[in-house]
Design a protein that fits this description.
two-stranded parallel sheet; 7-stranded mixed beta sheet; Aspartate Aminotransferase, domain 2; Aspartate Aminotransferase, domain 1; 10 helices; 2 domains; alpha/beta; 359 residues
Length: 359
């Protein structure tokens, strides 16, 4: 059976060259004469892998001096709590809420910092962004936290918020490595891997070194970012296979022309799909145009009674995981880095055919 186009929101599709290389190296990796999953994380072979992965990531993102790069566990959800544990210092923290993951970050942070919600777009069912003039920012906040891309509603903040001297913290689980960014605008970036980085199981965290001085010694080392930084992300046994696959993905991004090329490809994919939806007269997208996500494109059919047939027929056509999140319904096409333009074009052709038959 040939591979289908996988529009899953996460865990998401991985680039085929990465999967093929992992397949070829599964039993005999490098000079180890064993699988990468079977060797010690403290052995010279894996240490070299880890150092190369960090070096490649630093090159791809142009990470400036003064930042630590960590490869951690727990998924982004664990770090919703771990960030205030490390950085709040008993102070209040600002949170911008533009979707489900922002709401969850607030809930998990609340036991460790006084959460100040500067704005919340729940009244629009997260289909719009809160107007900047309505934000209530605290210039003395420990940090400002936001989610640049909300995968469920398909809402994205395309510019880094200017919040003065307050460190900006971003949950970039669904956008990191999708285009170039200026890392120097952030105090801390964190991302669960299962979108554009690699498989689930590892979290990439990029943190300004001066913020590590805030990490209190009163919390267990396993939760302490400074302790992890001191040990090169090997305070305990890391998720070695996920780290290895992330490293292969970094090399793939470099081979594709880096983030400038990847970003342009992603822009074209998103524009092509939104353009068809808007002009179809059959499908619709509910998100404010200025807030539309490049990565997650929700769309609706004119009658919910057609949803089941659309999903059944699309899967048969080799287009997988198009069902929208249960909280919003409809459809959702996640078009991360590994989704080629050909996959988006195949989806559009199917949508055209379905609309012609069902209109």
């Amino acid at each position: 059976m040939s591979r289908a186009y996988n529009f899953s929101s996460g865990p998401a599709a991985l680039p085929e060259p990465v999967l093929q290389r992992a397949r070829d190296e599964m039993l005999d990796w490098g000079s180890a004469r064993a699988s990468v999953m079977e060797v010690s994380h403290r052995g010279k072979e894996f240490i070299a892998l880890a150092e190369q992965a960090e070096q490649d990531l630093r090159e791809i993102l142009a990470i400036p001096a003064g930042y630590k790069v960590l490869f951690l566990q727990g998924g982004a959800t664990q770090h919703f709590a771990q960030i205030p544990m490390n950085l709040a210092q008993g102070r209040a923290s600002d949170y911008l809420v533009t979707g489900h993951w922002g709401e969850k970050a607030v809930k998990e942070a609340a036991p460790y910092t006084s959460v100040q919600v500067v704005a919340n777009s729940a009244d629009s069912k997260f289909m719009q962004l809160p107007p900047r003039a309505q934000w209530k920012l605290d210039p003395e906040a420990a940090y400002f936290h936001y989610t640049p891309n909300e995968t469920i509603a398909g809402v994205e903040i395309h510019e880094v918020p200017d919040v003065g001297n307050v460190p900006v913290i971003a949950d970039m689980s669904s956008t990191l490595l999708s285009r170039p960014i200026d890392v120097s605008q952030f105090g801390l970036i964190y991302a669960g891997a299962q979108k554009n980085i690699g498989p689930s199981g590892v979290v990439v965290l990029i943190v300004r070194e001066d913020l590590l001085e805030r990490c209190p010694k009163s919390i267990p080392n396993i939760f302490n970012y400074a302790a992890h930084a001191k040990e090169g992300s090997m305070l305990n046994t890391p998720p070695t296979f996920a780290w290895y696959l992330a490293g292969l993905n970094f090399q793939w991004i470099k081979s594709e022309g880096g983030l400038a090329a990847i970003g342009e490809r992603n822009r074209i994919k998103a524009e092509r799909l939104y353009g068809y939806i808007d002009g179809s007269g059959f499908y619709s997208n509910p998100v404010e145009i200025a807030a539309r996500s490049w990565m997650n494109v929700p769309f609706r059919l004119p009658d919910e009674a057609l949803d089941a047939a659309f999903l059944k027929e699309s899967e048969a056509a080799g287009l997988l995981a198009l069902k929208g999140h249960r909280s919003v319904g409809g459809m959702r096409a996640s078009i991360y880095n590994a989704m080629p333009l050909a996959g988006v074009e195949a989806l559009i052709e199917f949508m055209k055919d379905f609309a012609a038959r069902k209109a």
